[in-house]
Amino acid sequence: MKRTTIRPENVHQAALLRLLRDGGRSRAELGDVVDLSRSKLNVELDRLVELGLAEPDGLAASRGGRRSGRVRLSQATRFAGIDVGATSIDVAVTDGELKVLGHLSEPCDIRQGPAAVLDRAIDLLGKLHRDGLYDELTGAGIGVPGPVSFAEGVPVVPPIMPGWDRYPVRETIGQALCCPTMVDNDVNIMALGELHTGLARSVGDFLLVKIGTGIGCGIVVDGKIYRGVSGSAGDIGHIRVDDLGPVCSCGNSGCLEAYFGGAALAREAVEVARSGGSPYLAERLAVAGTLTAEDVGAAAAQGDAGAIGLIRDGGRRVGQVLASLVSFFNPGLVIIAGGVAKLGHVLLAEIRSVVYRRSLPLATGNLPIVLSELGETAGVIGATRLISDHVYSAN
Ligand SMILES: [Zn+2]
Predict the structure, then answer these.
(1) Distance from the CA of 321 to the center of ligand 1, in angstroms?
(2) Predicted TM-score of the model (pTM)
(3) Signal peptide span per the entry (predicted)?
(4) CATH number for position 232
(5) Are residues 23 and 101 in the same domain?
(6) 97 shares its domain with 64
(7) Are residues 145 and 160 in the same domain?
(8) Are 142 and 237 contained in the same domain?
(9) Are residues 247 and 289 both part of a single domain?
(10) d(CA 263, ligand 1 centre) in Å
(11) Which residues surround ligand 1, an ion (CB under 5 A)?
């Protein structure tokens, strides 16, 4: 059964819904921030209540006259966020203000292909449905770990997603969940999560660098994702840092990702362990037969010099690329996120030192470089922000 999600009728209603997404408030407070006469504002708010998109919420404290009525988004509003990673899947259901009501996460191999992975996402959401977290969904957002044609809602030649090229992800999820759906790449939705509820809340122009299995960069300009002409903006993992470097999954050599993605770090960790450079990693390798980026982090936390060296090398290369991006883009904030970012402060210190040394003072004078504090929730919240931006826009 296909339902029609009710959308705002004009740009004023859309703007009011987006304001209310940041929290309910009084009519007087809304009047302070929108460019509408008081009577026009009340007409639009009353109409939103009639449409079932918003609802009254008692009276505000007096500001020295008649008490103003509070308004909030309809408490029945529910968004779904799906964050498909290379090795995991996260789903969440939020209310209209994008507060997470339920979140499920499990390991999942993207190489199983779209039918199996998307089925899993729908199953997990079904569990949240049975738990009573929603009856109907107002919209769903989904992020996938590869380039996406945003207009068509399909992945395009994604290097680490065999079988997903041009698969109708938006259509599949939209039909299964009976609601408007949008697809973007995982880095962009993480950036939207940071914009909505993370460290970037008050920052209009920032970069989010995700260092996980791959490396990508979300570019936010004036509060909006910049995707480029075909959707590949921010694909910084394949910027070449050394002509003679290792071969990358994309077929070129010397890409940033070939040095410091999760896979590259694991490979280098094995080399260091075998060459006697790290007793800790050698012991882990003997026990587990393999090493991961997490092992490198754990070794570094124990003060293991070999592991710290690996993180510093990787951080230096990320810093080199980032210094160029900072000179080019002049962001107000850089957030480092993703699995490898869990390597923490050794990584952050190295990236900071290279960027601050190599970029011009005017670009870095007021530039915090920080680790994400949202962790696994950035992607799912960002996915709901993506679809709510769409649903809360005038047709
Ligand atoms: Zn590459």
Answers:
(1) 14
(2) 0.92
(3) none
(4) 3.30.420.40
(5) no
(6) no
(7) yes
(8) no
(9) yes
(10) 13
(11) 238, 248, 250, 252, 255
Contact in structure between 215 and 186 (CB atoms under 8 Å)? no
Distance 317 CA to ligand 1 centre (A): 14
Give the tens place of pLDDT for each residue, 144-171. Answer: 998 999 999 999 988 889 999 999 999 9
Token pair recorded at residue 138? 């107002």
Structure-token pair, residue 326: 């900072």
Question: How many whole angstroms from 251 Cα to the centroid of ligand 1?
Answer: 6
pLDDT one-digit tens code per residue, 288-338: 999 998 899 899 989 999 999 999 999 999 999 999 999 999 999 999 998
User: For 7-43, what is each residue's pLDDT tens digit?
Assistant: 999 999 999 999 999 999 999 999 999 999 999 999 9
DSSP E strands: which ranges in 85-190?
Answer: 88-94, 100-107, 139-144, 148-149, 154-155, 181-185
Q: Are 53 and 71 in contact (CB under 8 A)?
A: no
Q: Is the dihedral of CA 55, 58, 63, 68 positive or negative?
A: positive
Which residues on adjacent β-strands are paired with residue 302?
A: none
CA 216 to ligand 1 centroid distance, Å: 11
Q: Is 62 or 233 the better-scoring residue by pLDDT?
A: 233
Tell me, in angstroms, the distance from the centre of ligand 1 to residue 235's CA: 10
